[in-house]
Specification:
With 448 residues, the chain is of the alpha+beta class. The chain has 3 domains: 206 residues, no CATH class; 89 residues; 142 residues, Histidine kinase-like ATPase, C-terminal domain (Heat Shock Protein 90). It is built from 9 helices and 14 strands. The strands form 4 sheets. The chain has a 5-stranded antiparallel sheet with strand order 4-3-7-6-5. Strand 6 and strand 7 form a beta hairpin. Helix 1 runs antiparallel to helix 2 and helix 3 runs antiparallel to helix 4. Its main location: membrane.
């Protein structure tokens, strides 16, 4: 897929969208997970706070003491990351995990029974803490004394859990990305398949296997198909009109040419041979131009039913060429297997072969060979003469309209140009080359 491919652009856009969506999903899921963990931790802290309050009592001296520690063993491990602290009027109790440190609580004491949630930047080990603080009034047996109870936990546990969550999540997001990109590829392939169908149909039209798209497409593509068919209709109409005008012009010139031919005969009867020869040369040149235009207007390019039997057509043309003054002096050597059919109108094929054989007969010394074979879905027809050939530097010029490398004859330099026109109309190719067997004109035709 090239950089200008619509398929590639859609796939890139889909892949970028999928990756962006998954990145946002990963961020959102991580934030939700962090909030969930944080709420879970806060719920555990409230449970711990309740246990701390439940363990408070007074000793024989009347001081607040902790008689029943909270169940979590981390409260007994120094700098474990889980702490509690109780502040009364004349007493401050701390968990063993605080060691010799204290929780630096804000000065805004909460109302009785209310709960405050804090974040402390520096805990006993320099770690950030999440703190749940509550001010409560002890029961009557404990003299209704008001105390502030705080429970704290290392906030790094949330970050650690979030990192572990992201680590576990990434492989699944990678697999999901591959699946979604694959689904996007399938979606693009299905969505663009009508365009592929149009391309294939247009290729069939260009190859002469169809004349119109002429099929149903999705609603979004159907207007395009309709416009293409309308364009093809307009093109066919223009071609028919142009052929009609060319045919009218060519036929209109036929009558004056016939009159000039009669004048040539009358000049010869008056012994004005030089003038008659000059007019006849010009007349022949004009006739070949007219014949060329008639050939072009007759060409049935694009006809999907066109089919020619190569051996049969070539033999018919060869029989005519061998009876001409130039062809009658030569040995004709055809090697044309049966069963070779080309996708070309028989009249157009005969016109092309006639010009090629006429050209070969004009330059051959003793013989002309005609061969044909099928190769890679095409038919290669070669006409080989044993003449002097054409200098390599001038072969390209031989295919140009109106160019004659041999000035001796009366031809107008249009024979090979006519063959070129016919070849282009039928997806054929004409090549000229000097080979060991002789000068070769090769016509490559699409097989039918």
């Amino acid at each position: 897929m090239s950089g200008g491919s619509l398929r590639l652009r859609l796939l890139l856009a889909g892949a970028v969208s999928v990756l962006a969506a998954l990145a946002l999903s990963a961020l959102g899921l991580t934030l939700l997970f962090e909030r969930h963990v944080e709420r879970r931790i806060e719920a555990e802290l409230r449970t711990d706070l309740t246990q701390v309050v439940a363990g408070l009592d007074r000793n024989t001296d009347g001081k607040i003491v902790m008689t029943k520690p909270a169940a979590d063993p981390r409260f007994e491990q120094p700098l474990s990351g889980l702490y509690w602290q109780v502040e009364a009027e004349d007493t401050r109790l701390r968990s063993r995990s605080l060691w010799d440190a204290e929780l630096s609580l804000p000065q805004d004491a909460p109302p009785d029974g209310a709960e405050h949630r804090h974040r402390i930047a520096d805990g006993p080990a320099g770690e950030p803490l999440i703190v749940i603080e509550r001010r409560i009034t002890l029961p009557q047996r404990l003299r209704n004394e008001a105390v502030t109870v705080a429970v704290a936990i290392d906030a790094g546990e949330i970050d650690q859990a979030a990192r572990a969550f992201r680590t576990d999540l990434l492989p699944y997001l990678g697999l999901l990305a591959l699946f979604l990109i694959g689904a996007a590829y399938a979606q693009v392939a299905v969505g663009l398949s009508p365009l592929t169908a149009i391309r294939d149909r247009l290729s069939a039209i260009r190859a002469g296997k169809a004349t119109r798209l002429d099929r149903s497409f999705p609603r979004e593509i159907q207007p395009l198909a309709t416009e293409i068919d309308a364009l093809l209709d307009a093109r066919d109409l223009q071609i028919r009109q142009a052929r009609a005008r060319a045919a009218d012009l060519a036929h209109g010139l036929k009558t004056p040419l016939q009159v000039l031919a009669g004048d040539v005969e009358r000049l010869r009867a008056r012994d004005e041979t030089p003038l008659a020869d000059e007019i006849e040369t010009l007349l022949e040149s004009m006739r070949r131009h007219v014949d060329r235009e008639l050939t072009r207007t007759r060409m049935a390019a694009g006809n999907p039913d066109a089919r020619s039997d190569l051996a049969r057509t070539a033999m018919q043309v060869m029989k005519v060429a061998s009876r001409t003054p130039e062809g009658g002096r030569l040995a004709w050597k055809p090697a044309l297997p049966e069963g070779l059919f080309a996708r070309i109108d028989p009249d157009d094929l005969a016109e092309a072969l006639g010009n090629l054989m006429e050209n070969a007969a004009r330059h051959a010394r003793t013989a002309i060979a005609i061969t044909a074979r099928r190769e890679d879905g095409r038919i290669l027809l070669r006409i080989i003469d044993d003449g002097p050939g054409i200098p390599e530097a001038k072969i390209d010029d031989a295919l140009k309209r109106g160019v004659r490398l041999d000035r001796a004859g009366g031809a107008a330099g249009l024979g090979l140009a006519i063959v070129q026109d016919i070849a282009e109309a039928w997806d054929a190719r004409l090549t000229l080359e000097n080979t060991e067997a002789g000068f070769t004109a090769c016509l490559s035709l699409p097989a039918a």
